[in-house]
Amino acid sequence: MAALLSSSILSACVKNAPGKNPAAATPSAFTFPEIAKTASEHHTIAAGYRADVLIGWGDALDGKTRYQQGKISPGQQAERFGYNNDYTAFLPIPAGSDNSERGILFVNHEYTNIILMFPNISPGEEKTSVTKKQMRVEQEALGCSILELYRYEKQWALVKSSLYARRITGTTPMRIGGPAAGHARMRTSEDPLGVRILGTFGNCAGGVTPWGTVLTCEENFDTFFAPLPGEEGPETANHKRYGVGEQGYYAWHRMDPRFDPAKEPNEPNRFGWVVEIDPYHPERSPVKRTALGRFKHESATCALTPGGKAVVYSGDDEEFEYLYRFISRYPVRTDVRELNDGLLDEGTLSVARFFEDGSMEWLDLVWGQGKLAEENGFFSQADVVIETRRAADLAGATPMDRPEDVEVHPESGHVFIAMTKNPLRKKRDPANPRAANPYGHIVELIPPDKDGQPDHGARLFRWEMFLMGGDPSDEKSGAYYPTPPSKDGWLTNPDNLAFDPKGRLWITTDGQGSAVGKDNGLYAAEVDGPRRGAPRLFFSGPRGAEVTGPSFTPDGKTLFLSVQHPAEWPDDSTYDAPSTRWPYFKDDEPPRPCVLAITREDGGEI
Ligand code: FEO
Ligand code: CA
Ligand code: CA
Q: N or C: which end of the chain has fewer CB within 10 A?
């Protein structure tokens, strides 16, 4: 193992291994009884807790009616809960309060899988069998769902006739803010001014701003576009850098020309952004905030500089891509929340470079500085944000092992980043020390102190390895945990992260099925003290599902959790013969992606 560890990881080991086994003598901050790893059609949760289905694909937004299986229309889908729910965020009502009994739940939807959504489509027929009507259903099943809910005794219920509940879909008109708004590379035949985009899709994780809006992240937008045309066009190299035309998973381009780059070469430039949505104001249009850069944003996690400027951390989830930070030009207005509309349109985007001595540097991506100039094809900041990946290449950023979620510890301000895996890595580097990396790892960034506060605006941070996934009893795995986990506590492929109000880290996984033959789960780990970095398994999802989007109410008594793509594995699992019919297990019902509300039977904190 020592051969795999950089000096900074080793220093972390030493720091956290003061005695023989200090964890044994110290009570855990977690009281839940750990569950065993599973490989099951069903979900499993720790004893003493309940997991209630709050809402699932096709349900009305007040949760009252389900759709008729396999026959949902585009119009129905546009008003009902979307497919493959991912991120969740609880926003108390009223805004700015810590009410944990009534609020808005923001949920986004990542992608659609027509094999599991409609009958009579066989694996391999995804692109040839889909009809125009089914494509319209898919487009309406993406985007975001905004729900209003309240807690009544032990259960959560959705509000009927809510003023807040709404859908934002893959076709909802939205504005563009920031340096790329109106730029020639953002214009299409439908939108000659480059200021109005239809829809958001590929939404993965997200974040909540200090003023209570939500940032939802466009991740794998490339899959929705057609293969690139044979001859080179002005945007071909740019599209290739983002994978447009390579994976082409959908057949939309055959029926909707805006998804064919041969017809609309700029349309892919209008995706891959962070979208700001105000859940408290349904009349307000979502806005794509282009100052935060264009890449496969996993998340957009907010913090503040000591001077009160907004900071947004975001990973680009692809092999060898980068970790980014944005800082607003002006401080957050705390007097009137609506005055922060547009705050994220001006500021400085930077990208992370890691060093072996345990330091890291944020490199600014500013037009006219360094190599980001005309000789390299950057003619304004619009070019820098549209081609963020190429700008980061030129700046000398550190290629990472698929940076997924980023979360900031509520007290220390340390920044935790999940690298989910990178089977393609051949060359080790300090912050990505395994080659290849099948199991993923979590890195902890430590901002410097400024007058007793973490300085998220500093140019230089320190960093440590928090853990490296895998089974520690398998010497070949290269696993590393600061404290030895139990036989069920080790994990692989960390994806989403969340801190509960007590500052304990919750970790979801994506990929344990293919990595170790086990269902994905939700783990919890302390980040300080003698049990630092020894995860415990709390929840395990059903077969083929990814567990995503954990979020807590302010009182820590409810945990919302997405179960995404149940039955997606193995590959021959279809609508007609799914590998699980979770969550209802009725012979005539397909599996449904759902959001769970998890509470403790005795009403206490999770
Ligand atoms: Fe959609 Fe990076 O997970
Ligand atoms: Ca994710
Ligand atoms: Ca993932």
A: N
